[in-house]
Amino acid sequence: MNFVSIRVITHDVARLVAFYEQVTAVSATWSTPDFAELVTASCTLAIASDRTVALFGGDSAQPAANRSVITEFRVADVDAEYRRLTPLACEFVQQPTTMPWGNRSLLFRDPDGNLINFFTPVTADAVQRHDRQETAAH
């Protein structure tokens, strides 16, 4: 089994896609006005309109209601990303901080309030752990 994507449901697909294109520097591929994907080397971030929820049955997902999932992106340099994102007026939750498990992390929110973590492994153990995960994924 391979984890291949995460989907974010929103009221405003264009706004959220534009935000993620800006912070990730990845261009989206649009399938319909209600669905776009940002494809990276390891995973896909799908962004879909709340109108697509009915396809899954009833009220199965609610836009801008996430308070438990953090979407994470491994970046080369968290501190450089923080400097790059600061002029974009992102809502930062935590400035670059080295976590006890060896990642340097930057936590911020997208326009719908979903948490995003940009991280860089900085300790030898963290680098080794993430390198093993990448090798296992390929």
Tags for this model:
alpha/beta; four-stranded mixed beta sheet; 2 domains
Protein model, in words:
The protein is an alpha/beta fold and about 140 residues long. It is about 25% helix and about 35% strand. It has two domains: about 1-55, 2-Layer Sandwich (Signal recognition particle alu RNA binding heterodimer, srp9/1); about 70-138, 2,3-Dihydroxybiphenyl 1,2-Dioxygenase, domain 1 (Roll), CATH 3.10.180. It has helices at about 15-25, 80-85, 125-135; strands at about 5-10, 30, 35-40, 45-50, 70-75, 90-100, 105-110, 115-120. Strands 1-4-3-2 form a four-stranded mixed beta sheet, covered by helices on one side. Strands 5-8-7-6 form a four-stranded mixed beta sheet. The radius of gyration is 16 Å and the shape is globular. The relative contact order is 0.17. The model has no long low-confidence stretch (mean pLDDT about 90).
